[in-house]
Amino acid sequence: MRFEIGEIMKQNLVMDLVYGNSSCPKKLLGRHYVRGGQVIAAYHPDAVSMRVITDDGEIYEMDSVERLSVFALFIPGQNSFSYQIEMTFQDGNTFTNYNPYDFPCQITKREEEDFQKGCWLNSYKKLGCHPMEINGVKGLYFAVWAPSAKRVSVVGNFNFWNGLIYPMNRLEKSGIYEIFLPNAQLNQYYKYEIKTTQGYILQKADPYGMCQERTIENASKTFDMSEFHWDDKIWMKNRKYKNVKETPMVVYSFSEKEMEKKESILEEDFTHILFNRKREQWGIKEDWEQWNMKEAREHPTTFFTPSFCSGSPDLFRQYINETHKKGIGVIMEISPGYFSRESAGLERFDGTMLYGTAVERIRPNEESAMCRFFFERPEVSNYLLSNLLFWIREYHIDGFVFGGITDIISTNKNTSNNLNIKGAAIGKTNETMGETGRAFLTRAVETIRKEDPGVIVISDEYAELSSKDKNLFLGEADFDFYWNYSVKENLNSYLSGDKLQKMQEHYKITLPLQKAGLSRSLLLLNYKKQAVFRQTSIDNPLSDGYDMLSEAKISYAFLMGVPGKKVLSEIYDNSEIRNYLHSLIRIYREYPALYEYEKDMKSFEWVNGMDAVSSVVSFIRKSSSSRNQLLFICNFSSDSIADYQVGVPHFGKYVLLSNSDATEFGGEGRFVEQSPAVMREPCDFRPYSIEVSLPPNAALIFGFGSAFDERKGV
Question: Most CB within 10 Å of its CB: which of 219, 416, 511, 700?
Answer without folding.
Answer: 700
